[in-house]
Design brief:
It is a single chain. By secondary structure, the chain is an alpha/beta fold. It folds into 2 domains: 160 residues, Chitobiase/beta-hexosaminidase domain 2-like (Chitobiase, domain 2), CATH 3.30.379; 326 residues, TIM Barrel, CATH 3.20.20.80. It contains 16 helices and 17 strands. The longest helix has 18 residues. It is globular and about 75 Å long. The two termini are 20 Å apart. The structure holds ligand TNX. The site of ligand TNX has 10 residues, from loops.
Length: 520
């Protein structure tokens, strides 16, 4: 066993594997600034501890998260202790605010000396981002879910880092096929490693309603009973949803729930007759394309009483700032119908204390200054999206041609019907080969909030297939969202991406070993 383990570790390591450390330039996403201190390394002490800024729940949360990751593979106790302002302890230090001020939102400084590993940040996200980087400086065996022999050595140096964009998202469609909560958490584990900070949960669509709403219980008993192709129905109780939200927060990820509308709502219409214009509930829908009977009854006051209840319950369960109100593909509605619907929904979202996020089809119907828009293609509402950007609105770029990770990698991927192809095939190189600021001519660059990798799941049956499509392409999107535009280069990205293979493998992430990438 030892021989196998050491082979795995050596093959995953660097050319400088002799010193037993990971190089500082093998990180995804690429940090803003990296300086190695030659000849210096930190060894984790079997009796060592973590120190978190005393009185800071955020520093303690980041330290608890890191300690929780390290205890199993190291077998060390790694207690988390309070750090007073003047102390300079040996060990791993998580310092919020104070001397090493970083000042950029979500930024951090990670310093490794022979005595201490110090992550300093000015905000909670910064600490979690520093932890994500530190994980990639640890030997690959740190990702093993069993005790491994030391040493646990980290190369000396300083990394100063901050993201290019504030929004780095992953859309996970749990509506087309339900994904059990434990699998959603595993997905969160993986995206958090790469500093993805928003999980956009596509909770509702024609084929399934996945979140328990206590005031409208049939949404889940009927609307949640099935999925695309008639399989993988299911839903999250409010407790399960809360536990997903908490799990994400404990890893630096904010959940954004999406409810759809005015189309893509067949699962609601199938659950309650009174939501239908003709007062009759259709059968649940299990087809692969959009339902033709999935449009809300826009003239009925019941529709908006219903949405008020739903948005109210979701808002109460969701600490994050946004509720995504869908809006995509409502091609058959007039602009007046769209405006009327989105204005009412936006009011409800605001009434329940949240900010509005919506697909680009809704852009012209909102107050651009207070809403966030999600771009997925050119040719729909382009002028309104540009106008929103010019008026101070923020836009998230999720171009289907590059960032929809439900697209097949190649035409022969795989032999069975997993993956869509309507936006073309998307190799790993393609997922990296795009620029947020070049997607929509005329959109001001400073209106771009960030990027999102979307995994729609009509063709995805469970976590193994979800992971195979999402990874490694998610890492391309993470890199585009985080790293400086000036370091964007496939040839230097490729080996950094390759180095993640062994880590993903140790974590049992079923990534696609694309031939684009020189995996070790
Ligand atoms: C388009 S683009 C959709 C989804 C589908 C997806 C499949 C957009 C916001 N909507 O309803 O699931 O394509 O790739």
């Amino acid at each position: 066993v030892t021989a196998i383990l050491s082979t795995a570790t050596a093959s995953a390591g660097s050319p400088s594997g002799a010193s037993g450390t990971e190089p500082l330039d093998r990180i995804v996403p690429q940090p803003a600034e990296v300086r190695t201190t030659p000849g210096v390394a930190f060894d984790l002490d079997p009796d060592g501890a973590l120190y978190a800024t005393a009185g800071s729940g955020d520093a303690k949360a980041a330290a608890d998260f890191l300690a929780g990751l390290l205890r199993k593979p190291t077998g060390y106790a790694l207690p988390v202790r309070g750090l007073s302002a003047s102390a300079k302890p040996a060990g791993i230090v998580l310092a919020l605010g104070g001397a090493n001020s970083v000042t950029k939102p979500e930024g951090y400084q990670l310093q490794v000396t022979s005595r201490a590993v110090t992550i300093s940040a000015d905000d909670r996200q910064g600490l979690f981002n520093g932890v994500a980087t530190l994980r990639q400086l640890l030997p690959v065996k740190a990702d093993r879910q069993e005790r491994m022999p030391g040493p646990w050595r980290i190369r000396g140096g300083v990394i100063s880092d901050a993201p290019r964009y504030a929004y780095r998202g992953a859309l996970l469609d749990v509506a087309r096929h339900h994904l059990p909560d434990a699998d959603v958490k595993k997905y969160i584990d993986t995206i958090a490693r790469y500093k993805i900070n928003y999980l956009h949960m596509h909770l509702i669509d024609d084929q399934g309603w996945r979140l328990q709403i206590k005031s409208w219980p049939e949404l889940t008993t009927i609307g949640g009973s099935t999925g695309t192709g008639g399989i993988l129905g299911g839903f999250y109780t409010q407790e399960q949803y809360k536990s997903i939200v908490d799990y994400a927060y404990a890893r630096g990820v904010t959940v954004i729930p999406e409810i759809e509308g005015p189309i893509h709502m067949h699962s609601a219409l199938a659950s309650y007759a009174e939501l239908n214009c003709d007062g009759k509930a259709p059968e649940p829908y299990t087809g692969w394309l959009n339902s033709e009977d999935g449009r809300l009854c826009l003239d009925s006051p019941v529709t908006y009483e219903f949405l008020d209840d739903v948005i109210g319950e979701i808002a109460a369960l969701t600490p994050g700032p946004y509720i995504h109100i869908g809006g995509d593909e409502a091609h058959d509605l007039s602009q007046a119908e769209l405006d009327g619907h989105f204005e009412k929904v936006a009011k409800l979202v605001e009434k329940h204390g949240k900010k509005v996020f919506g697909w680009q089809e809704a852009a012209g119907s909102f107050d651009p200054a207070t809403t966030m828009t999600e771009f997925w293609t050119t040719g729909i509402n382009d002028e309104q999206v540009i106008a929103a950007g010019k008026a101070g609105g923020k836009v998230v770029m999720a171009p289907a041609t590059n960032a929809y990770v439900d697209m097949k990698y190649t035409e022969s991927y795989p032999e069975y019907p997993v993956g869509n192809a309507w936006a073309g095939t998307t190799t790993v190189a393609d997922s990296y080969d795009w620029k947020p600021e070049e997607q929509l001519a005329g959109l001001p660059a400073n209106s771009i909030a960030g990027v999102e990798a979307a995994l729609f799941t009509e063709t995805v049956f469970g976590i193994n297939q979800a992971e195979n499509l999402a990874f490694p392409r998610m890492l391309s999107i993470a890199e585009i969202g985080w790293a400086k535009a000036s370091t964007h280069d496939w040839d230097t990205f490729k080996p950094r991406l390759a180095a993640q293979g062994p880590r993903l493998r140790e974590s049992r992430v079923n990534y696609y070993p694309s031939p684009d990438v020189p995996w070790p």
